[in-house]
Amino acid sequence: MGIAKHNPASAPSVKVNIPKIEPTSYQGLVTDDKVTAVKSLIAYVEGAPWTVDYFSQVVAEHNDLREVDAAEPDIYQQYTKIHNFEIRVTTPLTESNDTTTGFMSVTGSGNVYGSVLPNVNDYFTSDAGDKKMGLFRVTNTERKSFNRDSVFYMDYVMVGYTDSTAIADLVTSLGNKVTREFFFRKDRLIDGLQPLLKAEENQKLLNVSDAYVTIVRDYFKQFFSIKHGTLVLPGQEVSIYDTFIVGYLTQIVDSQDAPELKELRELPNEREYYMSQNQFWKAMVERDFDLLSYGNTRMGLISKKILTRNSYLHGFALSSIQQLVYPVQPDETTFGTYDVLPKTVDATLLIKETKSRQGSLASLITDSYVTATASIPVIHPVLIDDYYVLSAAFYNNTASKSVLEILTKDYLQGNALDMDMLQKLIDKYRSWSRLEQFYYGPILLTLLKEASISLYS
């Protein structure tokens, strides 16, 4: 073996330690709230809530921040009015005497949310005690952090009571100089959504919220069966259970909105493989329109007599319900020798049409939504054809879809909802027959929840 020797003519091998540069797509554990929304936390800043109407100056690069001037033309001094804005009061209104001038002053301070950037000489009006409305002026502002989503601290002083002759011109001038109006919604701030809405959008949101509360309450009062402990199809000669719609409702409705959910039972499907295949309500959960193309589109009825009576499984056959909604042609392509063949739907078992309190089912056909180019039916009857819940036009994506089906398709595809169409559904819901309310009610609730978060999201 040779002896290793140092060769001075050979340069040593040097391995340069080049720092590793992570790719731009790298995401570490550090959270940067310039990118990560933290509005849900900002909604709980320090201070007691105080609701005011806030007048924010409309300023540009060369505007100065000055007090309202009643003599100034409105076009040269403009304000944005924010109704029901919330200030988090840290220092309550305090009276003090200026020994130099001898005047009394009323001052206070608080925090405001970053959705509104306060400036010196902004104004707001609110209850100032003794059932009197006061006018206040911002005297100082301070950003509490450098992050994009930050809160602002501000000091303010009371100018006077709005009904006093001394400041009547200022109050009138403020109102005349308002060029835009918004409404502040604290609930949207908590959800991380844009809390400032235009007047018309705020009214639509109020209509949507009221409709959701009313419909979800009425739905469970109408269709929850105390006898069976679950939801059953209305107006039928025997009790019929649709496990798909019951399972869907338990996922989208909170028990605080419908107390009946605490007692609602989801009856077991006895490990029936074909009951777990894709269908309309699964597409609604997944929000996937394409899922309908390979799901079960038609449903029929089977009797509980053909199901197992295994008491260990607490089977459906041991319940007080007589019939069960079941796929007409379930997918058997995955069938193996160890599997069980699907049940055969009984063609003699049929779901009956039902009436509403206002009249017969025929009135549904004449209900339409009129546009500049077409007259669209608000809904199709549930039993218009043999397709499950919605009509063949919805599943085949043809032009004869109803308003409900158009909005449902838009929801499944992630498109914006037409608020006027949605309002039409709200207005007509109570005139629908019971069967239409039973099957279309959960769809309408879903659309209402989507609309409530879509505005300025």
Task: Describe the fold and architecture.
This protein is an alpha+beta fold and 457 residues long. The chain is built from 11 helices and 15 strands. The protein has helices at residues 39-42, 168-176, 186-190, 199-223, 243-252, 280-286, 362-366, 392-395, 403-412, 419-428, 434-454; strands at residues 48-57, 79-97, 104-112, 123-127, 133-143, 152-161, 178-184, 196-198, 224-225, 230-231, 240-241, 299-303, 323-327, 368-370, 375-377. A 6-stranded antiparallel β-barrel has the order 1-2-3-6-5-4. Strands 11-13-12 form a 3-stranded mixed sheet, with no helix packed on it. Strands 9-10 form a two-stranded antiparallel ribbon. A hairpin with an 8-residue loop joins strand 5 and strand 6. Helix 9 packs across helix 11 (434-454). The longest helix has 25 residues, at 199-223. Mean pLDDT is 84; it is low at 22-39.
